[in-house]
Every structure is written in C-alpha cells, then in structure tokens.
Structure prediction request, 615 residues.
Amino acid sequence: MATGPLEAAARLERLAAQDGRAVLSARNRELFGLLPVALAVAAGFAGVLITREAEVNDATLTYGLAFLVFCLVGHLFVRWRLPDADPYIYPLAAALAGVGIVMVYRIDPELAREQAQWFVFGLAAFVAVGLLLRDLSLLERYRYTIAAGAMVLLIMPRLTGGVTNGAYLRIDLGPVEFQPAELAKIAVVIFVAAYLADTRELMVTYERRFLGVSLPPLRYFGPMLVVWAIAMLLLVFIRDLGSSVMFFGGFLALLYVATGRLSYVVLGLAMFVVGFLFFESTVGHVGARVDAWRNPLDPDLYYALGGSGQIAQGMFAQADGGVLGAGLGQSILTAGGDPVLPAAQTDLIYAVVVNELGFVGAVALLLVYLLFVQRGLKTAMLATDPFNKLLAAGLTAVFALQVFVIVGGVTRVIPLTGVTLPFVSYGGSSIVANFVLVGLLMVVSDGARRRHREGGLL
Amino acid sequence: MDEPIAVALKFAFLLLLFLFAAWVVRSSSRDLAAGGAAGSEFDPLLAAGGDNAPIDLRRGVHPRLTVVAAHGYEPGSSFDLTGGLMLGRDRPAEVIVQDPFASSRHARIAPRGPYNFLEDLGSTNGTFLNGARVEAAERLAPGDKITIGDTEFRYEE
Prediction:
C-alpha cells in the first residue's frame, strides 16, 4: 500500500520533469510537495465540517481556501527571491500549519479565522526577511543591538504585567497582545551564532584543562555565564520554564556545533541543573510546576487553581485517542460550558491531535517535525560561512527544543510549560516568529545551495 | 458517532500526511544522490574534491605544496597535490596547520580540468594567495605563495 502511491508520485515527478529521467527542479519539487498538503487540509476541513455541522458554517471554510492561497503566494515569492533554497522546508512548514489550522478550526472556527489572519502577517514577515536580509552579515554586524533588544523584549511582560498561568509572557498592546519570548528566541540565536562564529577558534585554541575537563578560557567563559543568567532570569522572574529550557538548550547546541567540545555541553547542563534544583526548592512557582508534574492525579493538586488539572486532562484525552483516534471533531473540549481541556488551542493542542487522530496522527505530526529539523540541519551542513552555519543550526535547535518542551510537557516527560507547538498552536506571535525562522533558514539555504550548484556540486 | 464519510476523511487526512512525509524522505535522499557521493551529506567540500578528481593534469607535471614556514613541518618539505588536499587545523585536513588563525577546515586545493585551484572553505581569518585574500576559487600557478595566518606554503609543479 505504501509503495503503490509512492511509486505513482515518483512517476508523476518524472513525467513532470522534461527529459523524463531527471528529477524535478528544486522549486517544482516544492510546488509538488504542497499538493498533498493542500489535499490533507481539504480532507481535514471536510472531516470537521461533517461531524460538527451544528457549530461550524460554510463561510469559515473559505479561510481554509485562503490558507492554500497563502501557501502559493509564499511559494511564488520563494521562486522569485530564493530560487536555490531547500525545496522541502517550505512544504514541511505548510504541512505543520495545515494540521494546525484544521485543529484550531475544529476547536473554534472564530480562532481559525484569526489564525488565518496571522498567517497573512507571518507570510509578510517571511517576505520581509527574504527581501531585506539577502545579506545575513547585517544580522552579524548588529549582534549587540539584537541581543539588547531580546533582553528588553523578555523583561517587558514583567514590567507591564501580562500574567498567563502564573507566568509573565505577554505584553498588552491595546487590541493585540504579544508574546515576546517567541521573537526573543530568534534574537538570542542570532547573537550567540554571531558571537561564536568569531570566538570559537580562540575558545578551542586557548582552552585549559582543569581536573581533566577542558574548559574554555576565562575571557570567553563570561558570555556563557551571561546566557546562563538569562535562562535563570527567565525561570525566576518571567516564570517561563519552557523558554528557559529552549534558550539554554539552543545555546548549548550552538556551543557544541561551534567548538565540537562535549565537555562544554556537559558543563553547561550541569550549571542548568544546579540552577534549576536550587530554584525548585526556593521559588514557589517552579516547585509547584514540578509537583504537578510528578503527581498529576493527586486530588489536592488536581483541584488546585493552576494545579495539575490541565496535565491530567491532557493525559486522559491522549489515552482516549488510542491508536487511530476518536475522529476529527470528536474530542470533548467543554462540559456544560466549562472547558475540560484548558488552553486546548495553545498548550494542549498536541493532546487534542492525539485524541482525535490517535497515536498514528501523533506519529505523522512528529515525523513532519523531524523532517523539518533534518532539513534545517542539512542547511547548516551545506552552509560554508561560519555565522550562517551556526545560525541555521541554532534556529533548528531552538525549533526542535520548542517541540520537545511542549510535547514533552503534554506527555509528562518534563514539567508542562506554556510554549506553543510551532505552526500548529493558535497564536499570532508564535506564527509570525516561526515564519521569520523559516525565512532565515531559507535565506541561509539559498546562499549555500547556490554556492554548491555553481561549484557543480548539487 | 461512526459516520463512514467522517472516518474516511480522517484516514485520508492521515494517509496524505504520511505520503507527504514519505515523499520528502524519498525525494530529499535523491536530492543528495544527485549531488554525487553519499559522503557529500557529511562533508560536501571534502567529498567534492574526491568527486572532481582525479585530475587531468598535464602529463609529466607533479603538483606539490612546499612548506615555507609552518609549525610542525620542516621548511622545504612538500605534499603531493595529486587529487587535491585540504588544509586546516584538525583532521580530516591532510595538511595540519597549527596556527591560531587557522580554522579546522580552512582551505582546499583541488584540480579542475588541467589546473589546480585554491579555495577558501569559509575560514574565519581567510586564506591569502600572493598577499590577496581568496574569495572565489583561484587558479594556481607555479611559485604562488599561499598564506594562512603566519603559516606559508609555496605551490610548485
């Protein structure tokens, strides 16, 4: 079964290619890849419509169509401005966004309408990145400005006070609210990549050995401490454990890619764990998160406000999904007007996916994430400029870590924290930031692959 | 509620997602295959040297890289350039350049057609050919001076 349609796809690809044997050009492959995504989105919307006729109306279906139009607009832009970029990154992002909009539509059609609007903004951001940042050395040059911007962004919610589930995540800007951590993750990666591109050689050349462990020279150890401090700051003042793990993990990944020294990573991990354990026992909300994670079915924690109820309900929903899922539109999200699954459209959207599409659906979704990460790392491998290489590796690492943090949280591998599932969760900041991330990856990829093509390598 | 159409649509949705993922895996592996050696996945620059080799250098010519000043090598010793070489601070570079200004994969000398070319591999501090920084691949002529930091080589045929 699996090979039949695949063979057909391969034949189609060959037919479309002119000489009958050569593979399609990169951009045509990208367009080809959007085809199954479009069909899946159509099937998903139709499935939700059929089961939930009472609540959804046909007018909102147009937003599904609009989604497909956005995909094509983005693709045409890529053809024009980034002709050599990796042909799989864009369809993979579209597939994730497609799964996302179907699930958000199923949860609340009104939110899907807003999500579709966010796609427009995201696409605009993607186009802006492609137009303005053909030369990524611009980012490298303004590294300190970008780092300072990230710090301000992260501190803002604490000052203006937008509390979500006990964490300071939002900045309220009149009609819209904004989650700065999403954009800050990209800014931090840019800064660390630029910094390490310059100092990695020196870090390794002048390293010392202390108690049998290679340590970077003290001069270059300072910035590492700064990033660690940012992670701890996030943990304690912003109360955002998820972003803390994401930022620091992304930093360690970059450090490893830049220096090839596993000892630095082990050292960094040890620093993080020590910091975390200290704050877990001394700062109330960190400890509360850990308690809810360890004993989600404890009645006291379950009924407590901001306790383990959300985690427990997420687990029930996933267990209920089974292997093949309850079906699109079948999960129980509200009971008597009260939400059964709090934050179903953001934090717990993965639980809704597992509930409705089952283990098989979860595997499909995670597979698409894995492939996205694989293309990101491939882009990093092809890039020759150190900054571009580290940028692609770092962006891919934070993206992967974000998926790990939220899926790990919902499946109770780690304490649950409120980060979004990239491209799938509802949320404007998240969508826009991830489009920027994809834009940057494709700019790096475009440059790297053009270089290789001109060198006759690709 | 087991509406058959709804169930069919769910399976269609899942199947399309899996087909899409399978297509990406297949098509992207061919993308690499089209790039030549499987090794290019891990080190495109290095593998490319092997790809373009060997070497249609003019008969009777023995390209060499002679050490002028390099930490750890005897001045006047030389490397055989048949098939190309990589210069860098660490393995897998064939010519180990022990210089704080050298990147681990710094530069490459590889034949293209009848000539040898010098190419910088995106090093941090650059490779210099007769005092000028190497941007694109440069054709080498006998007597050319190749400099990386304080390390210097001479190209000879």
In short: The first strand of chain B starts at residue 64 and ends at 69. Residues 33-59 of chain B have pLDDT under 50 and may be disordered.
